[in-house]
Amino acid sequence: MLVSGRHFFPDVAPRSLGHKALAVNLSDLAAMGAEPRAFTLALALPDAQAAWLSELAAGMLELADAHGCELIGGDTTRGPLTLSLTVFGDVPVHKALRRDAARPGDDIWISGTLGDARLALGDFRGEWLLPEPDFSQVRPRMDTPTPRIALGMALRGVAHAALDISDGLVGDLGHILERSQVGALLDVDALPRSTVLASQPEARQLECTLAGGDDYELCFTAPVGERDRIAAIGARLGLAVTRVGAITPEAGLRLVDREGNPSAYHGTSFDHFASP
Amino acid sequence: MLVSGRHFFPDVAPRSLGHKALAVNLSDLAAMGAEPRAFTLALALPDAQAAWLSELAAGMLELADAHGCELIGGDTTRGPLTLSLTVFGDVPVHKALRRDAARPGDDIWISGTLGDARLALGDFRGEWLLPEPDFSQVRPRMDTPTPRIALGMALRGVAHAALDISDGLVGDLGHILERSQVGALLDVDALPRSTVLASQPEARQLECTLAGGDDYELCFTAPVGERDRIAAIGARLGLAVTRVGAITPEAGLRLVDREGNPSAYHGTSFDHFASP
C-alpha cells in the first residue's frame, strides 16, 4: 500500500506514480523468480480528475504491457490518496527464490547499482544539492524504478536466496540472514554504484548504498560454483551483477572495507512507521 | 478499499471493522458463486496500537476461519486508516454468476431482508431515532454483515445473473439491467424487510429497502422453472429467498406497488465520490 506523503510526494507526476506503484510490486515477483500475470488496483483519491487519472493509468499500463501483466480488477473511492496493488505471478513448484535459503559459503550478489534513488531523494529533501546533470541522471532511479523480472526468472535453480532491495541493503539483507539463520561478510567498497554516486563524499556513498532503499535491485545468494553462470546471465540481460560478499555460518552482518577492516558505517533502514 | 470516515466511522470497534472489511469482499465472491480460498490485507494506520490491531485481526480471522479463507499476505504502513483486501476464490469454468446474464422473463430474487443496515446508519447519523431494542436488532446488519457464500455456490447453474447489494438495490440492480441489456419490473411492496423496518414509516421503508445498500444480500435472476429449486435451496440454508419482480425485454427499471401502480419513490445509490 502506497500512501501519499509517506511513499511518494503529494505532487508527484501521476505518470511516474503509476509506473512506480506497479514497479515496486513487480519487483516482489522478481525477487521470487516469478513471471508476472495480472494485477488488481484499489485506489483512493481526494477527487476524480480525469487528466490526472489518465496519466496515472498510462504510466501503470505501459509497464504492465511491457511485462504482459493484465489489470484484472480493483476499485476506486474517495479518500486520502492511496494505492493498493495486488500482483499475481507464476513460478514452477519448488522453484521460487526464498529468503530462508541462503547457505554458508554462498556468494552475495547485487544487480545493477545501488544508492541513486536515495541520492535523488536527498536532493529533493534538501539534504544535499546535486548539479542539475547529476540530478537528471539519478532521478529516474527514484521515480521510475525497473523491476528485475528477467533476472529473477533466470536465477531459478541458480540462486539460493533472493529479495529486492526496497528498504535498504543492510535491513533487507538482514531479513535473509535472519530467515536463513546465517550471517554475512559484506565488502562495502565492492557495492556497485553509478559514476554520479561514486563522485559523492565517501560517507554519503555509504549511506546511499547501504541504507538507501528504493532502488529495487535484487540481492541474492548463490553457490560459488554458479559464478560463471551468473556472469553469463548478467551479460545476456545487459545487467551488471556484482559479488559483494559471502554468507557465513556465524550470525550477524559484518561490514568491511576493501582492505578487510571493519567499516565505520552505522545506519538503519526505512521504517514504515517512523514519523515522516 | 475501505477508507476511514467514508466507509466506516473512525471510532468503529476494531473487531467489527475486521469482520466487515472481509465480509464485504467475501460478498463479492458470493455474488459470483465462488468458494473463498484466501485473501491479502494491505493496511495503513496512523499508529501501530497492539490492542486495536489484535481486535481487528480477531474479527477478520474469525470470519476467515468460518469460510476456510486463509490470510496469505499483505503489508502494513503508516497512513490515514485504510484497509485494502484482495480475496481469492474458486468457481468451476463457465459456472460463475455474472451481471450480464439476466434474460427477459427471469424472476428477480432477493435473499434475506433489505434495509436494516441503512436503518441503523440513519440512527447513527441522527436522521432518525430508533427505540433501543430496535436499534440493537438492526445494528449488526450494519456492523457485521453476513456474506451469502453458501447461497451463491448453491445458485451455480440455477441463477442467470447475480450481484450483492452493497450500494442500494435500485443502483445495483441497474448494473444487471445495463450489462444484460434488459429492463425490470420491481414490486416495492414485495421487498423483504425485517419486522423492525416494517414498523417504520412507509417512505423510510422505501428509502431503506431501495437505496439503503450495505446489506450484502444477493439479488439474482433465474428462470421461472427454477422456483421450486430456489425455494428448496433457501429452506436448506435457512435463508429467506423472495421473488420481487421480473426481467423485461424493454430497458428501464419500473417500480410498482402491490396493486401494480407506479411507485412514487425517486432515490439514488451510494456514490463513492459524493461529499461525505
What gap, in angstroms, lies between the N and C termini of chain A? 16 Å
Kindly estimate the percentage of residues of chain A that lie in beta strands according to DSSP. 15-25%
Summing up helix and strand content along with how strands pair, one would put the structural category of chain A as: alpha+beta
* Global outline of chain A: globular
> Which architecture of the largest domain in chain A does the CATH hierarchy give at level 2?
Alpha-Beta Complex
CATH superfamily of the largest domain in chain A: PurM-like C-terminal domain
State the largest interface.
A-B, 24 and 24 residues
Helix content of chain A: 25-40%
Q: What is the CA-based Rg of chain A, rounded? A: 19 Å
The side-by-side strand order for the widest beta sheet of chain A comes to: 6-8-5-9-7-10
Major sheet details of chain A? 6 strands, mixed
Order of helices and strands of chain A: EHEHEEEHHHEHEHHEHEE
Number of strands of chain A: 10
Could you say how many structural domains of chain A there are in total?
2
CATH topology of the largest domain in chain A: Phosphoribosyl-aminoimidazole Synthetase, Chain A, domain 2
Number of helices of chain A: 9
Poorly predicted runs of chain A: none
Oligomer state of the chains in this structure: homodimer
Q: Look at the structure and give the mean pLDDT of chain A.
A: 94
CATH C-level category of the largest domain in chain A: Alpha Beta
Protein name (chains A, B): Thiamine-monophosphate kinase
GO molecular function (chains A, B): ATP binding; magnesium ion binding; thiamine-phosphate kinase activity
Keywords (chains A, B): ATP-binding, Kinase, Magnesium, Metal-binding, Nucleotide-binding, Thiamine biosynthesis, Transferase
Binding site for Mg(2+) 4 (chains A, B): 28
